[in-house]
Amino acid sequence: MMGMSKHIRECRSICAKEGLRHILIDHGGKHLAIDTEFGRLIAPCTPSDRRWRHELRASVRRMVSA
């Protein structure tokens, strides 16, 4: 995992803890596109506030439970 930013590692960790196993993260502009076995999530690339973690976790939970 050399060269991977802390933010991307944290996104992977949140997704894995919520049950997503096949994760591909693509950096495109100001957001990260997180492709999973259930679909695609969009997360901010530069987390300027603390809410991004909670919002990502909630989005993952909604995706997995749907």
Helix share, percent: 40-55%
Strand order of the largest sheet: 1-2-3
The span between the termini is 31 Å
Large-scale geometry: globular
Biggest beta sheet summary = 3 strands, antiparallel
Q: How many separate domains?
A: 1
Give the gist of this structure.
The chain has 66 residues and is α+β, with helices and mostly antiparallel strands. The protein is 41% helix and 23% strand.
What does this structure look like?
The chain has 66 residues and is of the alpha+beta class. The protein has one domain (6-65). Helices cover 41% and strands 23% of the residues. The chain has helices at 6-17, 51-65; strands spanning 24-28, 31-35, 40-44. Strands 1-2-3 form a three-stranded antiparallel beta sheet. The longest helix is centred in the last third of the chain and has 15 residues, at 51-65. The chain is globular. The relative contact order is 0.20. The mean pLDDT is 85.
Question: Any chance you could write out the topology, listing elements then pairs?
Answer:
Elements: H1 6-17, E1 24-28, E2 31-35, E3 40-44, H2 51-65
Antiparallel strand pairs: 1-2, 2-3
What descriptors fit this protein?
three-stranded antiparallel beta sheet, 41% helix, 2 helices, alpha+beta, 66 residues
